[in-house]
Every structure is written in structure tokens, then in C-alpha cells.
Amino acid sequence: MPISLGELATQFGCELIGDPDVVVSSVASLPNAGPESLSFLANDIYKKQLPSTKAAAVILRASDADESPVASILHEDPYACYARMATVVCPPPSYAPGVHASALIAPSAKVADSAHLAANVVIGERSRVGENVYLGPGTVIGPDCTIGDDCRFIANVTLARSVEIGERGMFHPGVVIGADGFGNAMTPDGWVKVPQLGGVRIGNDVEIGANTTVDCGALDNTVIEDGVRIDNLCMIAHNVHIGAHTALAAMVGIAGSTRIGKRCLFAGKSGAVGHITVCDDVIVAARTFLSKDVTTPGTYAASFPADEARSWSKQLARFRRLGTLIERVKKLEKGGSRSSD
Amino acid sequence: MPISLGELATQFGCELIGDPDVVVSSVASLPNAGPESLSFLANDIYKKQLPSTKAAAVILRASDADESPVASILHEDPYACYARMATVVCPPPSYAPGVHASALIAPSAKVADSAHLAANVVIGERSRVGENVYLGPGTVIGPDCTIGDDCRFIANVTLARSVEIGERGMFHPGVVIGADGFGNAMTPDGWVKVPQLGGVRIGNDVEIGANTTVDCGALDNTVIEDGVRIDNLCMIAHNVHIGAHTALAAMVGIAGSTRIGKRCLFAGKSGAVGHITVCDDVIVAARTFLSKDVTTPGTYAASFPADEARSWSKQLARFRRLGTLIERVKKLEKGGSRSSD
Amino acid sequence: MPISLGELATQFGCELIGDPDVVVSSVASLPNAGPESLSFLANDIYKKQLPSTKAAAVILRASDADESPVASILHEDPYACYARMATVVCPPPSYAPGVHASALIAPSAKVADSAHLAANVVIGERSRVGENVYLGPGTVIGPDCTIGDDCRFIANVTLARSVEIGERGMFHPGVVIGADGFGNAMTPDGWVKVPQLGGVRIGNDVEIGANTTVDCGALDNTVIEDGVRIDNLCMIAHNVHIGAHTALAAMVGIAGSTRIGKRCLFAGKSGAVGHITVCDDVIVAARTFLSKDVTTPGTYAASFPADEARSWSKQLARFRRLGTLIERVKKLEKGGSRSSD
Hints:
alpha/beta, Udp-n-acetylmuramoylalanyl-d-glutamate--2,6- Diaminopimelate Ligase, Chain: A, domain 1, 3 domains, 11-stranded parallel sheet, 29% strand, flat
């Protein structure tokens, strides 16, 4: 949506250095920006791209404004400011209210008049869809679900059953919420399935990435609090509780009944075993897993970055001889060095 | 389904201590149970919740019965007993036979009259669907598939082609079975796809979790035997063979042509490389992978739990100096300690 | 498709030892082959299966021909030769042009007359579908997508929006391409979503496995070059660039903005952190992740194969005492061995 720099600066309370009447209609990175583009400089490693940018204006810190060859919008957090302004310049698509002829709504379900149901959407018994909700093609909402106002389901999302979602959530294709947790009791005749009877409760402003799964609880609910962000291909097991504003990068797995605090960050492929409690403000490095309760905020890690394969192979051999090495040191301590023999 | 404690005890051959005419109509954890709920005590860590429970009855070991403030159902394996009784008290939903108007059945396919096909189900040529099968919304059954009696496909499951499934299977949303295995031959012109012509054969009583994939075999079948349980987001590659009653937790990957024995347990994010054989009764710890044949039942592990990041960083540096340390010890053994100089 | 050995040998320029008029109509492994089957011997470990094969003919190296009890088709790379011949003997299914009555095409979309759109396919605004494309049941093509000639989408594939695909691509069920990347700016009020406005550009001859996700770029495109092969359950984050003919095995994760070279091989569960550059011809071992730029072709590794759990537990204890061990060696070097005391 074309908007003038003056309007943008006013709307977000930023100082503008430059012509307030210049209009921007797109956003772009510094090197690719044209005279109609809004750009930003948030990370010093891109500072060298600033002098040659052809953007209409650049969002940056006041301390960088001197080097801007174009209009500057000053903000102490240029990335967050860009995120907000970009949403104004390039708003997400809007959808007229309506239900596609191929969509199927169970008799006992209730769908707000302002909702948009695309092709082949299916809504189960007793489920409710709030105002301005967008349900993309192929989305299946099982029975007993509640979807709050302004949620968006891009396409082919599945809520199995008994999922309650707050407002303004965003759910990407392939997401599965509310499928049975992995509960099995071993018997002499093999596994007996433990019925999974809980639901899933998701707060406001939650975004869940493509092909991520969030299982229903065994008896009580699986809970995802407000503002949580989950990337693609993550696994949230039954009865997990994730605190507000925590973010999980791709391929993170949180095992059953574990409780994660608020504002935690899990990097790619990290995770936590089941039945532990993790306090607020914990950062977990890539490919690291938490194996016990974490009671102190901070950063946790335990991964080995790649090495040249032959070096690694030698290193692995050294690692395996660690017991022998310890014995050799013990012997030396007892005076057993060869020179003492 | 409401049922009296007496009937439950009789049906499962348990001793009941308490009024057999009390009726239960739900199941709940000890602290959340009300006077209409059946509960259970299987794990000692929840024993402290027993004295204050308000359940109608608690399934527990005889040795715990003294501390129960309510009726007791005695069983030496309370969790398995609970699993079975919960299925009676809270049975899975049942579906009337019928084919939704939007479901599409290929002319040469055969669907049992007692099956329920929900909205937008698609059945391919020559496929057969057994008695009492439930196929949820959006499920796609490709050509040449056979689905045994009493199977349930929750929603949006895909069988690509040539998948044969036994009875009483349960398949969660997003599951993909029978897609091509990853077979490519390198040539000077790039990769040439190796046609994947085998199928998938799945036994009775198999459950597969949301967004898990099971590839078809290259020439012969990929095989999953009776009673196997697979959690979400697992990957079973082409020509893998998984023995009866083995269980794989979430995000496990089994690479091509590997053969896993019976009653194995793979914890979350564990796995096995391709072309190996793993004997019966093997347990693999979380995030551990088997790299060669396993011929001895037992537990296998190789993962590093998270450490405080600065400690880990120091530890990583120490690990990298292991070669130097070994040299230093060697020198000491040769009498090269500084004090000897 | 039945074809004579003579025709096959001629078509692929191979030498045939045996009767050119024998017809093959299937392919099979050496032990399972019958008199109508074409088989192959590419790996020495299967050489012992050669003398007893009942195949019509075996593709093998000239040096192995003496031991073949049946007709031999000679090729220096039997596996690649088999891949090509198998495609002739067992061609992929072909589909008559046409649009199923339940498929939905947006008014501004263009679909080639020779394309086949199966049940419940949805094509969004301004999208274009090329000649001979097959879109399987439940496939959703969002707005502004372009699908090149001869592509195949097996079933339930989702292109979110703005995805451009070259010719002859193959996309398995559950694949999601073009969903939003994971871009969030932290603010005192929680996460602010950073609009993801780029698209995805995929070259010719690309194959992507079941339930893999490829995110759209934040501003510029995510790019996958010609001939890339990606297995199941992989994650390609926003603005990643994957060079031609690179192959990623199952469960590989490539984090945002990382650039992977040509002809790289990533084994199962391996990956790369974000914002790094990996040169051509790099091989990454299973479960290994690249943490920084790689400028030298070669093989990289950093994983610990499974050990018997009690051994591993001791080994982990030794590893944790590495700091102490180093101190002890330091003390010995200073003459601090007990025998010196």
C-alpha cells in the first residue's frame, strides 16, 4: 500500500530526515531497493551497502544516519521498526467474507459471517470459527475446536479435535494440531494404546510453521501460551506447556509433559526430554537437548561442529582411548612413567 | 460410556475394593478426578496425590491400596489396566457407514459397505477398503492399496500407491506412506532417478503419528510388522523392515534397507544408518544413532546432554586439545616431565 | 513396457551377451528376478547372488560377465544404466489430459490443455501450469506460482504462493513450498512478525521428498538450482541457495540465508547453520552440522556412533573430567606426580 514517508514516521513516532512527501510502495534490501522502496539497516555487517543504496528511505539508528545517501527514518531498533512498517507498506492479503461452495460445515458448527472459508475446507461438529478468520484450501477443522478472531490458516492445515486457539494466530500448510499423543502401555500381548483424551489450548498471536505437529494431551491439555513462535517441522508432544513469547526454530522436539518457560529460545534441531521443567529466559543452542530441569536463565549448549572427516575420525579414536589415557596418567602419578621404571 | 465399577472389574478380571454399583463416566488424573472419574496410580512419583484424590475409583497395585481414600481396582500393571479400561469408559468416536457426497471412488476400487468415507476422500484405482474403516476428511488413497478392517485414518493422510495395511491400524494427519524412496544414481550429467517400484506392507495393530513418512521399497517392499508404534515426524526409508511391537518415538529416522528387530525402543530423534541389522530387544537412547549391526540386546547411547554454554565452550576446547594431551602424556611416560628435565 | 534385450542394448549403447530377442517386462533384484525380469549387479556385496539368479538378463560390469548364468548387459556404471533402463521397462504412470470436475482453477490462472488435474486440486490467482503437468489429488497451488512442463505432484502438495518451478520436477505428498520463513523481531511487547515477501525459485529436474518444507525468502528468493534432490522431512529455510545437483538425505536442515554449493551431499539428519557459505563438492556425514563457511571440498563429520549404554555413561563421565585430567597432566609436567612428592 503506497504511503508517504511522513505518514509512516508519524504513525510509528519516528524522526524522519528527508522529504516527508516521498511515497514508498515496496520494501527491499539495501542493494536491491529502488526509488519506491523502503529499506533498513539493522546489522552492522550490511553497513557497507548503505552508501550506494537507491532506496527512497532507510530505517536505521541515529548513529548511522550520517552515512545514508537517502532519506533516513531513525529508530533505536531498526529491525523491529522495519517489521512494523513493512506490514503497512506490504500488508498481508485480505479476503472477502464468504464460504466457498465446496466448503463443508457440520450442522452444529458455527462460522462467523466475516470469515473466509476457501475451497474444500471442512469444519467438524460443534466447532466455532471467529470473525475475519481465513481458512485456506484443504484445511480440516475437526470436532470441538474453537478458532479465535483474525486467525489465518494458509492451506491444508489439520486440527484433529478439541483444539482451542486464541486471536490473530497464523498456521502454515501441513501443520497438525491435536492428533493423539504417543501413549502406549507395554503388556505381554504387545502395546496397548492409552486413550489420548485431552485437547490443545493455544493463546493469542501464536504462529506455527509448516508441517509442525502439536499433539493433544493425554488427560489434561497441551498448552502453548500467547505470542509463541514455532518454526517448521517441530514436534510438541502431549501435555507440553510452552510459556509466552518463547520461540522454537525448525526441527525442535519437546518431549511429553515438559514445561518450557517464557521468552525461551530454542535453536534449530534442539529440544528437551520429557517430564522436565525449564525456567524463563533459557537459550538452547542448535542441536542441543536439555536432559534435566533448568532453573537458571542463560545459554545451554552441547554440540560438536563439523570437522574435516579424517581429523574427526582421529579425534573419535582419541576420545575412545580416554579411559586408557586416564589410566596412563594415574600410573604416572604413582610414579609409573617409563623413565621411573 | 458410563459403566459401574463392578462391571469394569469383572470385565478385566480385577479385584475391586469398594462399592461395585458406583458408576464412572470419565477418566482423569488423580488431582483432577471427580466423583464420576476413574483414575490410576502407576508411577510412584504421583503417590503423594493419592490421599487427596476425589476420584470414584483408582486403579493401583495391591500394595498401594491401603492409602487410597476411595474405591480401589487392583492390578499388577495399573497403567496397562488403565489403558484398557479408559477405552471402555471413553471409547473412540464411532462413525455410521457411508460415503460423503464429495468423496471420490475410482471405478475399479472396492469399498466395504460398513466403511465411512468423510468429505473429499479420494480412492484410487484397484484399491480396497475393508469393513468398518474410517477415512477422515481429505485422505487420499492412491492406486493399488489395501486397507484392512477397522483401520482409522484421522484426516489428510496420503497413501501414494501400493500400500497394504492389516487390521485395526491408526494413521494420524499428514502421514505419507508409499512415496518414492530416495534412489538416485550419479552420472556425469547429474542424478538419474532410480525408479522406486516396491510397495509398503504394514501389519495389524500399527499406529503411525502425524507427519511421519514411510517410503515404498525400491524393488521389494518396505515392511512394518504387527503392533509397531511410530510417533510423529519419523522417517522410515525404502526397504526398511521393522519387527513386531517395536516403538519409535518422535523424529526417529531409519535409513534405507536397515532391518530392525522385534520389541525395540527408539527414543526421540534417535535412529539408524542404512543397510544394518539390529537384533530384537534393543533400546536406543534419545538422539543416538546406530552405525553398525547390533547383535546383542541391550541399551545403546551416545549423546551429550546440555551444559551451561560457557562450560561447554571450554569443554569443547579441551576436547579439541585431546591429541596434544595424549602427546604430553606420552612425553611424560618417556620421562619428559619438566621436573625430570 | 515389454521390450527386447536387443532394443534395450541398442537404445543405451551397451554390449549385450545373450539372445537379443528375449523380452523383459519387469525389473527385480537378483534373488527375486524371474525369466521376464531385468536385474543388475552394481555392488560387490551382492556378487554371491549372481550365479543363482533366474533373471532374463543382468546389467553388470564387463569384469563380472563371466559369472553371469544368464544374458549380460555390459556397462561400466551398472546402477546408472539400470536406473535408465528400469524407467523404460517400468515407466511412471501416464495421465490423460484433463481437469477433474472437483478441481478449482482461479479465473486468472492458466492451465495447459495437456495438464492433468486430479480431484480437489486448487489453483490460485495468476498461477500457471505447464504442458503435461500432473497435479495429484488434494494439491493446492497458491497464487502467483509457475509450474514448468512435465512436473509431477503426487498428492496433497502445497505451494503457498510465489513459487516458480522449472521442468520435470517431482514433488511428493506433504511437501510445502513457499510458506513464510521464520522472521521475528523481538520487542518489549513480544515478537513482531517480519513480513516474508520473497518467493521460491526452483530449477529443472528437481525432486523433493514427502513432508519436506522449503520456505519463501524474506525479501529475495529462496533458490534451488537444477538437478537438486531432496529427501523426506528436510527443512530449507528462507533465502537459502542450493547449488545444482546437490543431494540432501532425509531430515536435513539448512538454516536461513546459507548458500550451499553444487554437487554437495548431505547425509541423513545433517545440516548447516544460517548465514554461511559452503563451497562445491562438500560431503557432510550423517548427523553432522556445518557451523561456519566451508571453502575446501571434502568430507566433514562430527558425530558419535552409539555405544553400549553403560560404556557410554562411563565415557561421558571421563569426558566431563577432561578438565581435571588436563590439570593432573600439568601437575605431572611440573614434577607433581605422587612418586615425586
